[in-house]
Design a protein that fits this description.
The structure holds two protein chains of two kinds. The longest helix of chain A is centred in the first third of the chain and has 14 residues. Chain A is mainly β. In chain A, the strands form six sheets. Chain A has a 22-stranded antiparallel beta barrel. In chain A, α1 packs antiparallel against α2. The N and C termini of chain A lie far apart (54 Å). Chain A is built from eight helices and 36 strands. Chain A has a single domain, classed as Maltoporin, Chain A (Beta Barrel). By secondary structure, chain B is α/β, with parallel strands linked by helices. Chain B has one domain: Rossmann fold, CATH 3.40.50. Helices cover 27% and strands 23% of the residues of chain B. Chain B contains six helices and ten strands. Chain B has an eight-stranded mixed sheet with strand order 3-4-2-5-6-7-8-10. A two-stranded antiparallel sheet of chain B has the order 1-9. The radius of gyration of chain B is 23 Å and the shape is globular. The chains are: A mainly beta, B alpha/beta. At the A-B interface, α3, α4, β15, β26 and β27 of A face α1, α2, α3, β7 and β8 of B.
Chain lengths: 668, 192
Amino acid sequence: MCIGTPFCYVLCALADFRHSRSAGNRITAVAAMLLGSTLLANTTALLAQELPASPAALKKLSVEELMNIEVTSVSRRPEKVSEAASAIQVITAEDIRRSGATSLPAALRLASNLEVAQIDARQWAISARGFNSTTANKLLVLIDGRTVYTPLYAGVFWDVQDTLLEDIDRIEVISGPGATLWGSNAVNGVINIITKRSPETQGVLLAAGGGNDLQDFAGMRYGGALGGTARYRVYAKRVDRDSSVLPDGADVSSAWHVTQGGFRADGERSANETFTVQGDVYEGRAEQPTADDIELSGGNVLGRWTRVLGENSDLDVQIYFDRTHRRIPTSYAENLNAYDIDLQHRFGLGDRHDIVWGIDYRQIEDDIENFRAFAFLPPEVSRRWYSAFVQDEVALIKDRLHLSLGTKVEHNEYTGIELQPSARLAWRMNARDLLWAAVSRAVRTPSRIDREFYAPAAPPFVLLEGGTDFRSEKLIAYELGYRAQPADALAIAVSTFYNDYDDLRSIEHVAPPAAFPIFIGNGLRGESYGAEWTADWHVTPFWRLRGGYTELRVHFDHKPGSTDTNAGTNEAHDPKHLLSLRSSLDVGDWQLDAALRHVSRIDNQSVPGYAELDLRLAWQPLQALEISIIGQNLLHDHHPEFGTDTANLSSTRKAIERGLYGKLLWRH
Amino acid sequence: MAPLTVPVHATRVLVSLMLMSGLAWSAPAAVIPATPTREYQVKAVFLFNFTQFVEWPADAFAQADGPLVIGVLGEDPFGSYLDETVRGEKSNGRRLVVERYHRLEEIGNCQVLFVSRSEADRLEQIFAHLNGKRILTVGDIDRFAGRGGVIRFATTAGKLHLRINLDAARSAGLTISSKLLRPAEIVSSGQE
């Protein structure tokens, strides 16, 4: 009898096989459950890069607003975003507010280079350039420099990644490898969430509202002075969400709520020395259909110290501690502590070289409580990562042709030393056109689920024997991109890529043709290619239109000797086309925003393609007050975005309902 | 087992993708000066703002109805952006004009002087030369304000901040509006 936890699908599926000696294709389903679909878990902006600002636009800003503009960028050195040789899109605070998004994953829909699929009220599948699943493992996600992926499966528990959305300064989304600068797991992309500095969040902010699907939410922040130049803020928020529905419209217990609070303090010890201390704590509960509630809690604290060493040189030291607790009754419980210390130094060398290097040490202590169906063994582990990187940006022709060469060297306890080099070339053809190209190598190092996952929970492991020899998944990525501003009010960008993967995860049979036991191997190769287009058009000063279109293909092949019968169907659930159009209109004190998205069919899950529309109408009667109503997914009563819908196995597919809510925002 | 297909040579794939994208590869019509970085775009607009928020004594201008001159000393980081920023703008009825200087002797009757980073090594010499002149000196060199400049652009956490040396402003006879002073950090000579 299935009791509805993600893992219980595995249990059900496995139990099913004990009674029936089924054929290999059904193993596909089980394996998919194990590794892909059901495990555990769960852009105004830019379209891309910001338009190069015209003097007229910048002159409209106040002194304070000018001071608020970010003048440094992705490759960790001062430069225009549009010069960065990567497929970056930036989601701004304004974009998030105008999208009506009420969660971080929903805000990520603003980046058209991401695949964002909502699974149910709580869970999301998010990836870039393919390989999406509920346990998508090729994306690196950072919140204020803190890595939030879990060593359990190298993916992200999106249900506990949150902050006061009004405090987010911007979200940088890079599709394509970022491993050289950012590290392992930045295989297909990097999501870098950056919150505002405390001086920019002074005073009171209150946000509250409610509706049908998102039942009610409330958030508050207060920012004040600590003495000298130091400023702080504290915040608290609570969100309650209603259950999602099954594809037939029937309710399925998945309501949940999270309460979260946190603080941040920023100060300067001298003109050239700044520091930041910040932290968050959260606690929440989520319903499961027929088992006790899932318990979620955690917290983190981070310190960062930055010193300007000279005209063209700075030093940055960051240290943090992150603790997470998750208990899914009948599946597993986890207590995870992560410690991380990171140092970076940038300096100019002569006239033409800009060098950045850094070292990082990371340690985790992961303690799993196993139940009966499956187990992570050994239950308790401590692991260490050491890494160092160096990158040199050489001005081959100053301000015209720049080459970045760099590599990351990382040591992990599973596979030893991994090298992740990259070469990026940016050619600014003239003031309006930039062409860039890159070749990079990135690896996805093993996580606990690849190596240490067994079923049943105690020997003999007649179903799943772990993956003791699982190696890193490897990628060589070739990218070519072009950005242009054909007219003052229009910016366009296209990024194309060809990704060549080796040693991808596969489900191998111990004694074929016997279906079981299985083990986790590296029996697949893959290739993917595609293109990401964006356009940003300021039609008038009051009306802005943005569009994004992504086209993607992913193919798998078996390596010699592999006994895998899935051919990657559990690793990648991707639509071939993603289209988004957004309109932002200002009329006096009123704002009208519309976002239309079309996502094509996910073939291997038979999720139909869909189009959905979000609308937001906001009125700002006072400088301090904004009242808005938001409609989400307005075109259908409910629609599925992700998950298999197999009759003989518990369905993992839920449907997302139309949502309506109102919101009050007070800032003083 | 499925036979392994050898991936097509990557460059060919990329080329075809680019073709697929339908982009026209027209050569740039003319080589125009590169736009400055975002950092210097914002700094250029700040220079314009300074002309709106600072009052010069009457004797700062050679002619009663002469233009207000923004000078750039050393390597020009702004390109044509600064000229575009001030085009058609006025300060107290005076036209705004941008001039560029490479040697100290070239500095004529200017009211705002941006000292480029290329001049970092001879900052003391520059301030000595300008001593007593009615000039708003602006720069982004280390400790620019503490060493005697009026306004320094400092970059903290990726954003620009102003550091203003009021003594230096006073000795140049300048009055700075509270609109500029409020968000700025006040420093004094020797203490930045």
